[in-house]
Design goal:
heterodimer, A: mainly beta, six-stranded mixed beta sheet, five-stranded antiparallel beta sheet, 11 strands, B: seven-stranded mixed beta sheet, four-stranded antiparallel beta sheet
Chain lengths: ~110, ~110
Amino acid sequence: QKEVEQDPGPLSVPEGAIVSLNCTYSNSAFQYFMWYRQYSRKGPELLMYTYSSGNKEDGRFTAQVDKSSKYISLFIRDSQPSDSATYLCAMNNAGNMLTFGGGTRLMVKP
Amino acid sequence: SQTIHQWPATLVQPVGSPLSLECTVEGTSNPNLYWYRQAAGRGLQLLFYSVGIGQISSEVPQNLSASRPQDRQFILSSKKLLLSDSGFYLCAWSGSVEQYFGPGTRLTVT
């Protein structure tokens, strides 16, 4: 069993939809949770990161962490075709070593 | 602001040839540096990380090596490439807990 599980998709949604991307993890020591966006043939770009449980909002993006369930989510409101990319979750336990999910490919259709 | 560079962007090399990929970081001092490989449709595999000049830790035994000759320079090398070395190579540096990625080098071994 992988430490971090992420549905590979692809997830296809119409423009304007609310998107929910999720990861589950097994290591209860994880404290920091990150979401990266990776366009095809580009390096991953850090979208946002959160510490411990709770929500964090940045524009159309909201990151949610539920440590009791070992479950994290990224919500995208009013999705745009430019949001089409692979989304990677990552987490660590206060060191600098990240554990990544395998990524979910998102396609937003106009 | 910090910037991370990688070159070359694309490389096609025959089996058995040597390899040298370079990564440099601007705008920060004494960063932790990382090399990852991303195979097609798969997640990120950590290859090497470095906490300082000359300090390299290997995560995966293989025919690749890494060096850090200067504070903000990280080099990935191989004496003889294998077909299985094909992939997308990413360099990253870490802030407090998060990591920031370069644009990547796409390597095809033929």
